[in-house]
Amino acid sequence: MSKKIITDELITSELEKQGYLEFHDMDENKAWELLQAHYNCEVDDQWRNKHYDFYCYEETTADGYTIYVATDNTDSICVSEDIHYYENDLSDEIEVAIKDGCTMYVDDLDAHYFMEAVEQAYSDMLDKLREEMEEQLINKGYEREADITTEATA
After folding, report:
1. How far apart are the first and last CA of the chain?
2. Does residue 54 contact residue 97 with C-beta atoms inside 8 Å?
3. Average pLDDT over residues 90-116
4. Which long-range contacts does 50-55 make (Cβ < 8 Å, 24+ apart)?
5. pTM of the model
6. How many CB atoms neighbour CB 68 within 10 A?
7. DSSP-assigned beta bridge partners for residue 105
8. How far apart are CA 141 and CA 38, in angstroms?
9. Chain segment 22-33, per-residue pLDDT in tens
């Protein structure tokens, strides 16, 4: 009897059947929809009269410098934690907000820091889904290639 072996190609094929492709192979809007469904998060780029769990927006100082605010409370902004002079750390904060299932206000959804956060969160989600798919295949009688090699040498 031939054994059913789990391969990376098999896992990828099974995930593709469910609509999960590599980030660079799919439309960014579709990737965002999958992230929203998986993490139960939302994003808005229009300031509405409602509470968000996370806010990320650009401000200008009195003397004309651009700064970025990333906070969970706009009524109590902590300068040392919530204000960023550079935008390169914003993607990490947005990624955490995505994974925490936050409702978010992000003033520029086309900004590279937002797209980086989406790409990284999607990549992490896909890694987790790969692990889950491997477990599902094992439960269906498939074996890992390493397990078969170990059995053959024993």
Report:
1. 19
2. yes
3. 96
4. 51/103, 52/102, 52/103, 52/104, 52/105, 53/97, 53/100, 53/102, 53/103, 53/104, 54/93, 54/94, 54/97, 54/102, 54/103, 54/104, 54/105, 55/104, 55/105
5. 0.85
6. 22
7. 44, 55
8. 27
9. 888 888 888 999
